[in-house]
Amino acid sequence: MVHPDEFKGPEADALPDTATLPAELAALYLCMPPAQLADLRKSKRPDGRAGNGASIIKPVEGGAKDPVLYKLGTLREFAKSHTAPTAFDTALDSGLPGWVSAKLPFFAEREPRIKRGRRVLIGGAWDRADPLREKRFADLAKGRIRFTSLTCAEAAASLWADVASHAALAEKGLALLRSETQAIEAALAATGQLAAASNPDAVA
Q1: What would the pLDDT profile of 19-78 be if each residue is shown by its tens digit?
Q2: Which residues contact 15 (CB under 8 A, 6 or more apart)?
Q3: Using CA atoms, how far apart are residues 176 and 174, in angstroms rounded to an integer?
Q4: How many Cβ atoms from other residues are within 10 Å of residue 119's Cβ?
């Protein structure tokens, strides 16, 4: 995690292009799992094609064991040129199975608001269209907030900092559940009709 004192002054709401992020946060910024970013970082991928990942930034005095850092400006340019659906988008579009099983990143308050350590969520960290995303990354880099990996079902059952964001996510899940319920009810009705057609003497 970036030290809270590293960014000050005018960068209160958005980090400058010169800021560097560790690989975990760089992957989060690009809306991809860390393993996918690591694969892109390789000079040659396992299939023999050249890697096309964002440029690596290494500490000047660092050695081979120092953590990999990415310049934020490079990440921003990479994100602009790679607008295809991400792994997180795919998970969201996979219906109810993705809703209950795929882990997605969420911004969360730094400290639990109530006892027993229940998390308080702020928003989805994969949403690149969120107008507050850059500010939240600045807050994340400064240690003011954190991110956590949850399924959408887990997130919908969590506490949120505001009702509107919680309702927007929860409604998607409720719509999926309604659709699934309707499909099950329709299948039950069709089975009943099939049973009645195959046994016309049966008493309803």
Answers
A1: 888 888 888 998 888 888 888 777 555 555 555 666 666 555 555 666 788 888 889 988
A2: 7, 72, 134, 137, 138, 141
A3: 5
A4: 19
The answer to whether the CB of 121 falls within 8 A of the CB of 106 is yes
131-179 residue pLDDT tens: 888 899 889 888 889 999 999 899 999 999 999 989 988 998 898 889 9
CA of residue 190 relative to chain centroid, distance: 38
Q: Model pTM?
A: 0.73
CA distances to 2, 45, 152 from 38, rounded to whole Å, are: 19, 10, 25
Contacts of 27 (CB under 8 A, 6+ apart): 33, 34, 36, 37
| β pairing state of 69-71 and 120-124 | unpaired
Angle (CA) 22-158-120 rounded to 5° is: 55
In whole angstroms, give the CA distance from residue 99 to residue 82.
25
Going from the C-alpha of 17 to that of each of 13, 20, 34, 119, 158, the distances in angstroms are: 13, 8, 21, 31, 34
Q: 14 or 157: whose pLDDT is higher?
A: 157
The amino acid occupying position 55 is S
Phi/psi of residue 86, nearest 5 degrees: -90, 175
Residue 125 near residue 48, CB atoms below 8 Å: no
Question: How many whole angstroms separate alpha carbon 19 and alpha carbon 8?
Answer: 11
